Amino acid sequence: MKDNLVEQIISEVMNKQSDVSANKKSTTSIAGCGLTEFVGTALGHTIGLVVANVDHQLHEVMNIDKKYRSIGILGARTGAGPHIFAADEAIKATNSEILSIELARDTQGGGGHGCMIVFGASDVSDVRRAIEVALAEIERTMGDVYGSPAGHLEFQYTARASFALNKAFGAPIGKAFGMTCACPAAIGIVVADAAAKAAVIEPVGYASPASGTSFSNEVIFTFAGDSGAVRQAVIAARDVGLALLSTLDPTPLKSTTTPYI
Known about the structure:
Layout (H helix, E strand, L loop, with lengths): L1 H21 L15 E5 L3 E6 L4 H7 L7 E7 L3 H14 L3 E9 L7 E9 L2 H18 L3 E4 L2 E8 L4 H7 L6 E8 L1 H14 L3 E6 L11 E7 L1 H19 L16
Helix pairs in contact: 1-3, 1-4, 3-4, 3-5, 6-7
């Protein structure tokens, strides 16, 4: 039964990846600079790269186990949450592992993060496939990200967390998992409170400008629980966040791509 469940999850992820790749609006690039290390690009000034045989000196300084001969690298200037959730789907669909997740103080001058996510595997085809899946997933995971000159909002949900979300946020593996993020951080507190009050959830983490972030002007709230409850909490938080952020800028807030929650 467990094997059937794993096969079903992998099938669903691969089908979603194929659908996104076929979408003409997808920003994933299949043309590149000609280097074998280049895989593609995506929203948020995101680049996907692979190193087929990592130099032994780099293994040492990066503290990478030598069994991971190949690494895949997902790097972005904007949108750490979407990339971590995309990486989680890539882990479910491939024979690769998450080696590290780092949040950079970036957002190209904004109030949030960029990111760098490193995958590892013994075979370069595994990490390349992981990067391909993650790049394609970003089109979807950017769907509930809203931005304006005044700040930004970010909402994420998955019915089944895997190892990327566990490494980044401590998400319980196999459980539904949600995230709210808002800038300015003051809005983030109210958004988190709205999520907590909307349904019966299990708080997992709370990050603020001075704790758990790269000193970004954000509050990030993560939680797990029943799939329906987690989804309800995220939706309630999104409604509150959109209403509050709109008071700081008259420009109508629009999602980056197509909302999926």
